[in-house]
Every structure is written in structure tokens, then in C-alpha cells.
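Here is one chain, start to finish.
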Amino acid sequence: MRFSSVIMPKETKKFQKKKEDFVCERCGVENFGNGYTNHCKECLWSKHVDINPGDRLSECGGMMSVIEIQTKGDTYILTHRCQKCGFTRRNYFGENDNFDALIKFSQKSVQE
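Its structure:
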């Protein structure tokens, strides 16, 4: 019996902690990552760089706007949608995030 070796693509973990600093491409604010940071602390926008959180495998690179805010107890959860491909991802609103931007989005959503 003969076996051939097949190279399988390496599967990525569902979450990879990446501590990275970045300058927001939307508003220009410098952000200091903590390993869980996926959006700008000032304008709350994100960038589509991951397939699974932290893997940096997405080739899209589109900007992601907040489309929904949900609450879970005392926690806010942001849902971002990529402006380029439509991909969505949820992430927690951080303690250093701009609460005024959260309120502004909430007011805008109510008016629509």
C-alpha cells in the first residue's frame, strides 16, 4: 500500500491575542492595543484585517463602521460591518473607548 503525503493548510485558532498599536485610518487617533483591541477608541471604527480575531489573515482591509450597539448587563457590545465586503464582527466597548461616540451613534440610530 502506498501513501502520499498531503499538506493540509494550517488551521488558525479561533482567537489569537495580538497586542498592537495603530493609528486609526478614519480619524487619525493613535491607539495603544491591549491584545483585545479591534477598534479605534475615539471614533469606534475598525478595520477588516482578521478572519478569526487576531489572525490578520483577511485580505479585504476595508473600514468597518458600527452598525449596532447592544447591552449585556453593564457592558456594551459593538457590531461592526465592513464597508467593502459586508463582513460583520462583534466586540466589546472598552473602558478607554469614547463614550460620547457611543452616545452619538445611539442618538443617530434612534433618529433613523
